[in-house]
Hints:
By secondary structure, this protein is mostly helical. Mean pLDDT is 87; it is low at 1-31. It is built from 14 helices and no strands. It has helices at residues 3-18, 24-28, 44-47, 57-76, 79-84, 90-94, 105-122, 126-132, 137-140, 158-165, 172-187, 192-208, 214-231, 235-251. Helix content is 62%, strand content 0%. Helix 7 (105-122) packs across helix 11, helix 7 packs across helix 13 (214-231) and helix 11 (172-187) packs antiparallel against helix 12 (192-208).
Amino acid sequence: MTHRSIAHLALASLVLALGTPATAGDLAAGAATPVYFSAEQIDSVALLEPPPAAGSPADRRDLQAVLARQRDAHADGTLARAVGDADISCGRVADGSPLGALTSGAGATALEFATRAALQVAMATGAAKRYWHRPRPYMLSAEVERRGDVAPDYPMPADLARERDISAYPSGHTAFGTACAIVLAQLVPEQRAALFARARLYGESRVIIGAHYPSDVEAGRIIGTAAAAVMLRNAQFQEDLQRARPGLRAALGLGAAAP
């Protein structure tokens, strides 16, 4: 992947994290990025129930769950992992399986392919984020710790930070992580259980760092799954998937054909 492509993916990642509008054309501009999925292909608002109403018992339970999970993370040593999971890369999801040890060659190529695909899936959360404009947990309680990409000193233009602060529902990172697991499991179905387990932790990390409520994370899984299901039917995606599979499986010492 060229430096220009990497920079473009980083920019797309920022857009996704903020839930700001982006189109398939944006993804393709400036880099030869195949378009596997467009956010317009699903209606993320129609697919989700509304988030808990502000101040409702369900909303208060959501906040208490954030505070409890943050306390647990200090006790169980998962805080560092959660902060690291702010990184939008399928390599984070792969680190729960033998795939995580492949940092070059066919392994790196496959992870880059999965990341490109999952980024496009995660864009499907944008419309719902803009529709509900749910404030993030730290906006409603000073007790919520802010870490990672929602830390107060995280470098971000003020206008984008304001948009980020009211784009909690659904979680774009969770949709991304879910899509990573789905794509990687297409390549190495033998690792499906480990990949989906790690994707679940990737989503839960968003609660630990104060970026999302549990209900945001669950909604992100729904959108990630629905959008990935559409993407799996894309001919270009399937062609690139078939191209990535043999080298990855060989690097893992597996047979060329997935079982």
